[in-house]
Write a structure and sequence with these properties.
Helix content: 10-25%
Strand order of the largest sheet: 2-1-5-6-7-4-3
Radius of gyration: 19 Å
Shape: globular
Distance between the termini: 23 Å
Structural class: mainly beta
Order of helices and strands: HEHEEEHHEEEHEEEEEEEEHEE
Oligomer: single chain
Strand content: 35-45%
CATH class of one domain: Mainly Beta
């Protein structure tokens, strides 16, 4: 059986691909530890583009009403990437947050807040696969457990943050796959069940298969009620993300007024997500309809 090598605390690729997204409060007089709030687990899927769980993004918007209304926020947002021997801090503004009803995945696009961020080039990550895993497949998940703020220094627009990051890693076997939804309440979107333990802070983290392809996003866990029971955890399938809205700037040669989706991005990026040919999308918004996406399993 193939080994899953990317999910390892010693592998510097993991914290590079899964940065820490924090909210910074510049209100005078606050203690350092109250200035920085960890938002949740996110991971890189493209240039200035992140995935997280939709419920993580919803909580972010609830906590920051100005951002939700498209107004200037009193906060700054920072992406912290740990690269080999040092913490490198890049400050970004949240440009847009895209969400849809039938998917617990949100896409966050970023705009640079300073020149170092503008020149940041390390956006490559793991390949995405829109093909759902099969029952019996081994998968592994990674997410952030918590952060410990050691020091915060603010000097004008300059920010220095020293933090320790605790990450969670969990492996398991796929027990069930729900191509449409598990139920109408708790998991009402395409998802799959895993017997791995997903801690609450892992929501929004990536799930990889044995080919090191991202096949899902951590969306929740029911937990075991006794030591003898298996964990019941869930990951969101990726194929519904074709309907997520993104700004036209992310699509080469797109008119600025055009409504753009990750569907458009997926068909222009190289390499394309694996299995994009198995996904169909009908965009009936122009005629007062809706977006209708579906997945075709050739087997």
């Amino acid at each position: 059986m193939a080994m899953i090598s990317k999910v390892s605390e010693s592998n510097t690729f993991v914290p590079e691909y899964m940065p820490v997204l924090v909210r910074i409060n510049r209100t005078p007089g606050l203690p350092d530890k109250e200035r920085v709030q960890w938002i949740g687990t996110v991971f890189v899927v493209g240039i200035q583009m992140l995935f997280t769980a939709k419920h993580v993004a919803q909580q972010l918007l609830k906590d920051d009403p100005a951002l939700a209304q498209g107004k200037p926020s009193q906060y700054q947002y920072a992406i912290i990437q740990v690269r080999k021997t040092s913490n490198e801090l890049f400050i970004w503004n949240i440009h847009t947050i895209g969400m849809i009803d039938n998917c617990d995945i949100a896409v966050i696009t970023l705009s640079p807040a300073h020149s170092s961020a503008q020149n940041y080039l390390h956006w490559s990550g793991l390949p995405l696969t829109l093909i759902p895993p099969r029952v019996g497949d081994r998968v592994a998940a990674s997410g952030i457990h918590q952060i410990h703020v050691k020091q915060v220094q603010l000097n004008g627009e300059s920010i220095h943050i020293d933090i320790d990051v605790e990450r969670s890693f969990s492996e398991g076997v796929v027990k069930d796959v729900h191509f449409e939804q598990r139920d109408r309440g708790l998991y009402s979107w395409p998802c799959f069940q895993v017997d791995a333990q997903f801690d609450p802070g892992m929501s929004g983290g990536y799930i990889v298969n044995e080919r090191n392809e991202v096949c899902g996003v951590v969306c929740g866990s029911l937990g075991a009620t006794s030591p003898d029971e298996e964990h019941i955890s869930y990951g969101s399938l990726l194929w519904p993300t074709v309907s997520l809205p993104i700004p036209p700037q992310w699509i080469p040669n797109a008119p600025p007024e055009q409504e753009c989706l990750l569907w458009d991005y997926y068909h222009r990026v190289e390499p394309r997500p694996i299995g994009i040919d198995r996904v169909n999308l009908r965009n009936e918004l122009a005629t007062g309809g809706s977006l209708i996406s579906s997945y075709t399993d050739p087997s």
